[in-house]
């Protein structure tokens, strides 16, 4: 209440945030801290010139959000908080270190459907793309922004299609830049999957995007979630175009079919991976030429193996 009544006094806001931060270790204080997110973001928005206050506010938000995720509490932040966060992103668009923290906050927030919807409403997508372009080398910013992009795109509507259309090149650039970083590649694959679901690709995009996804699978074979999401993204591409299916068969770095077999054998006890692979194969056999090639590469044998491994699925 004191912070609200003195919202324009920087010292009050700074002391208030420090005092609230002293309760973080006290588990019984958590429900009360949850109710303070609005006043913390408002303080940050009002006093954007004070970097110390920004950092302390952001650190406190991260603590509160981390506890919320640990306890399975979804923080459905309202539109005013989403608007504050966007304002802070824009005000500090050059400060890489602070943006790394702030993007982590956005990623945690976007786990809630309501909060993701509010971030979309205030128009955060172009800012996310701008951050990805500007900080392509920064793995923290890249995986956080790709995670937010995935949350927004996967539940997006037709109104988002125009703005999401410009997301494909930058998301592919992130994946290309961080192919060997499993965490970033995983989120980039998820974002590409969501963009494919939203119909954000054109005819010239299918082949290079499929090739890039195959590269991600090759470079990170041990990451089950990446393999699953990569296969789901490929399935979405194949559903849209035979070009993507042919790109998988004729990839210059080796047969995509052999890669699929290898990935299954590596993750044969992961139902999510098997399901994604089956979905991909189901899309591929819609094309006669592709199906003949799959038959010649003995895909029926792999399907029989999967059926034996998961008889009740």
TrEMBL record:
Keyword list (alphabetical) reads: ATP-binding, Kinase, Nucleotide-binding, Serine/threonine-protein kinase, Transferase
Q: Which Gene Ontology MF annotations are present?
A: ATP binding; protein serine/threonine kinase activity
- EC number(s) stated in the UniProt entry for this protein: 2.7.11.1
Q: Does the keyword Cell division apply?
A: no
What reaction does this enzyme carry out catalytically?
L-threonyl-[protein] + ATP = O-phospho-L-threonyl-[protein] + ADP + H(+); L-seryl-[protein] + ATP = O-phospho-L-seryl-[protein] + ADP + H(+)
Name the Gene3D superfamilies on file: Leucine-rich Repeat Variant
Instruction: Look up keyword Metal-binding and say if it applies.
Output: no
Concerning PANTHER family, the annotation shows: SERINE/THREONINE PROTEIN KINASE, SERINE_THREONINE KINASE LIKE DOMAIN CONTAINING 1
Entry protein name:
Serine/threonine kinase-like domain-containing protein STKLD1
Q: Which organism is it from?
A: Tichodroma muraria
């Amino acid at each position: 209440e004191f912070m609200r009544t003195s919202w324009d006094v920087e010292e009050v806001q700074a002391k208030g945030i420090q005092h609230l931060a002293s309760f973080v270790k006290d588990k019984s204080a958590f429900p009360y801290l949850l109710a303070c997110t609005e006043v913390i973001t408002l303080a940050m928005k009002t006093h954007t010139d004070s970097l110390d206050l920004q950092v302390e506010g952001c650190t406190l938000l991260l603590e509160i959000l981390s506890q919320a995720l640990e306890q399975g509490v979804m923080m459905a932040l309202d539109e005013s908080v989403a608007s504050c966060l966007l304002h802070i992103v824009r005000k500090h668009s050059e400060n890489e270190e602070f943006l790394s923290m702030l993007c982590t906050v956005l990623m945690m927030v976007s786990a809630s459907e309501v909060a993701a919807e509010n971030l979309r409403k205030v128009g955060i997508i172009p800012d996310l793309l701008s951050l990805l372009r500007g900080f392509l080398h920064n793995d923290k910013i890249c995986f956080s922004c790709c995670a937010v992009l995935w949350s927004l795109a996967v539940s997006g509507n037709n109104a988002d299609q125009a703005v999401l259309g410009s997301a494909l090149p930058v998301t592919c650039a992130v994946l290309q830049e961080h192919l060997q970083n499993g965490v970033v590649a995983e989120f980039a694959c998820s974002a590409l999957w969501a963009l494919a679901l939203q119909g954000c690709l054109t005819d010239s995009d299918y082949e290079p995007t499929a090739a890039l996804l195959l590269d991600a699978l090759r470079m990170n074979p041990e990451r089950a979630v990446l393999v699953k999401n990569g296969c789901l993204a490929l399935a979405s591409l194949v559903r849209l175009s035979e070009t993507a299916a042919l790109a998988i068969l004729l990839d210059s770095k080796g047969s995509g079919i052999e890669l699929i077999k290898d990935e299954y054998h590596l993750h044969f006890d992961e139902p999510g991976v098997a399901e994604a692979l089956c979905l991909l194969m189901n899309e591929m056999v819609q094309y006669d030429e592709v199906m003949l090639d799959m038959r010649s590469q003995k895909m029926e044998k792999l399907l029989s193996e999967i059926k034996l491994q998961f008889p009740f699925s």
